[in-house]
Amino acid sequence: MEMGTGRGDICTLPEGCVSHVISLTSPVDSCRSAAVCTTFRSAAVSDTVWERFLPPDYRSILSRAVHPLEYSSRKELFVRLCEPILIDDGNMSFSLEKSNGAKCYMLSARQLCIVWGDTPEYWRWHPLPDSRFSEVAELVDVCWLEIRGKIESSILTPKTTYAAYFIFKVAQNSRGLGFVNQETTVKLGAQVCTHTVNVQPIVAERQRKRHRRHFLNLIWDAMLEGHADADENKRAARAPQARADGWMEMEMGEFYNDEGEDGEVEMSLMELKGGHWKSGLIIQGIEMRPKK
Asked: Taking every annotated instance into account, which residue ranges of this chain make up the domain F-box (predicted)?
């Protein structure tokens, strides 16, 4: 079919028809279609198209925003929501995945259940300039690390595979975090995903090399891990990844959100076996976003 040569020209279709077709694609395809012709360009920026890309409950989400969001079109609103906004008195953030409009949430540290989190001798709460929330939780000293979070699957985008990410930093004067691996679990209904992780693998490697020099320390390391080959267990642990915002993230596990009818997504990060003291873990929260 040739453009602009007669009755077969797709650009002669009514704009409303073109808008409907574009709204069945994706935000990325909509932007690309604007290059086809004037009719497509007009349709690709219409509220009809971008209303379809926004979640059905976006008005309810906007009503929970800490700061009102100003926008002149549905497309502008979509673009604004591709950057996190604070909702629910600043205890949670919301954003959209720009490629498909899927919902993303982050639970702040205050929204998590941190064992002994309200005991100043064990955890300290304070602001950090590069955190999206008003305060973070910093580990002062514990021998039992247990962090849990949950979110309703009904507020997530249906028919979407999600992953949960632990968002954190490690203070320069940290102690004991890399010595023993942690365990993460993500559970939704019958779906259970577990990982062995290590929030400070560089320190773990340094300690492992140092312990090789001392026979007694090697035995102690093996006892902590629960088997003789502690090195193999260290290599099996997942390592964190650096984020563009200066934080680190650790994938905790994934699940498929079918119709959002399976209740709560339960997430946890724990280190219970070592029994040694640790400090310097700085928690921003747990993020839920579509798995790429």
From this structure: 10-53
Q: What are the average pLDDT values for consecutive 10-residue runs of the chain, which has 292 residues?
A: 48 61 64 62 74 94 97 95 98 96 98 97 97 98 96 97 98 91 97 96 53 51 50 69 97 97 96 87 98 87
pTM flag (> 0.90):
no
The full DSSP string for 198-257 is -S-HHHHHHHHHHHHT-HHHHHHHHHHHTSS-HHHHHHHSB--EE-TTS-EEEEEEEEEE
* CB distance 181 to 284 below 8 Å: no
Domain boundaries, the chain: 10-85, 86-290
Tell the CATH topology of 86-290: Jelly Rolls (2.60.120)
Q: CATH classification of 10-85 is 1.25.40, yes or no?
A: no
SS3 content of the chain, % helix, strand, coil (to 5): 30, 35, 35
CA distances from 18 to 14, 98, 155, 187 (A): 6, 22, 31, 42
